[in-house]
Amino acid sequence: MGGAEGVVPGWRRLRGWPGRTLLRGCGAGTMAPPKENVSLLFKLYCLTVMTLVAATYTVALRYTRTAETELYFVTTAVCITEVIKLFLSVGILAKETGSLGRLMTSLRENLLGSPKELLKLSVPSVVYAVQNNMAFLALSNLDAAVYQVTYQLKIPCTALCTVLMLNRSLNKLQWFSVFMLCGGVTLVQWKPAQATKVQMEQNPLLGFGAIAIAVLCSGFAGVYFEKVLKSSDTSLWVRNIQLYLSGIVVTLIGVYMSEGAQVLEKGFFYGYTYYVVFVILLASVGGLYTSVVVKYTDNIMKGFSAAAAIVLSTVASVMLFGLQITVSFSLGALLVCISIYLYGLPRQDTTKIQPTSSETVSLKEKLISV
């Protein structure tokens, strides 16, 4: 669900919610997190929905690409997804601004009055378009469970882009989890699980190549968009609107270049079924819904969500597509789930020296004597 993963776990996309703003004077690249207390039940609800959306999207998309029906045009589906995201973002911005007049003023200033910003955001738009098309190609050639596990390579890719582009650092545990994740994905691909109920011809090598491109696109575009966000105090939803406007133009060009003649002959919505519409809606709403999880939860809970999505995708693949689980797949998936959890553990603040227990006792004695 590139461009809105948002999905991305949220920290890679930084999709926010109305009211989240960038603060000046907080240090370079610092985003002020919202200080809102919510119940554990609400957090679990948000994570449950996000997990179900992520797993359902992958399985449903796989089904639409392997069902014995006329295949729809991938590029048109990606384009429609961008259109829906645009309308949803405009609606959220309208709620954020509070009135139609302020909404129109904001759109006029940031769209018509900022052509350079639109051009700047055309870079991630192109990358996201490639990523989304690669996801369709990958799921046309790989099972949903294999895809779900392998796609987690976006974590080390994003980490590397973060280090190179934002000058951040990772601790030893995070680096260890990155290598563990790569090892887990290698095990999954070593002897890929086969789906016995899918009769269509598939090319696993092509599928893995498509995932590799999607992973690279996800890492670069996510960090690039984060850098653009933190370079100014422009509203997050204004940035999203700029991104999706560029994305619509880019995807329309993609439709024309790759399948223009066929679209003109058969129609823009050729091959669409209720399942295809369902997949498009999941891709559109799922990424924006991730923003709620970004706001109210932490990386550990998002890690559990990603691991749960892998498990659900595997179970669904066994039931729907006859996936035959191998030992290497099971071990690889387990390593990936553990690495996601380790990567999300909170980092210790080593910049401050904490007093030892003896120092604390002596300090108390001095205070008592005074």
Give an overview of the whole structure:
- The chain has 370 residues and is mainly α.
- It is built from 15 helices and two strands.
- The protein has a two-stranded antiparallel ribbon with strand order 1-2.
List the helices and strands and how they pair.
Elements: H1 10-13, H2 40-66, H3 74-97, H4 100-112, H5 115-120, H6 122-139, H7 144-150, H8 154-166, H9 172-190, E1 194-195, H10 204-229, H11 236-266, H12 274-296, H13 299-321, E2 323-324, H14 327-343, H15 357-369
Antiparallel strand pairs: 1-2
Q: How many DSSP E strands? A: 2
Q: What is the C-alpha radius of gyration, as a whole number of Å?
A: 22 Å
Strand content range: under 5%
Helix proportion range: over 70%
Largest sheet: 2 strands, antiparallel
In whole angstroms, how far apart are the ends? Answer: 62 Å
Overall pLDDT level: 78
Low confidence ranges: 4-35, 349-370
Principal-axis shape equals globular
- Tell me the strand order in the biggest sheet: 1-2
Number of helices: 15
Provide a quick synopsis of the model.
This protein has about 375 residues and is mostly helical. The protein contains 15 helices and two strands.
Q: Which features characterize this protein?
A:
2 strands, 370 residues, single chain, two-stranded antiparallel sheet, 15 helices, disordered C terminus
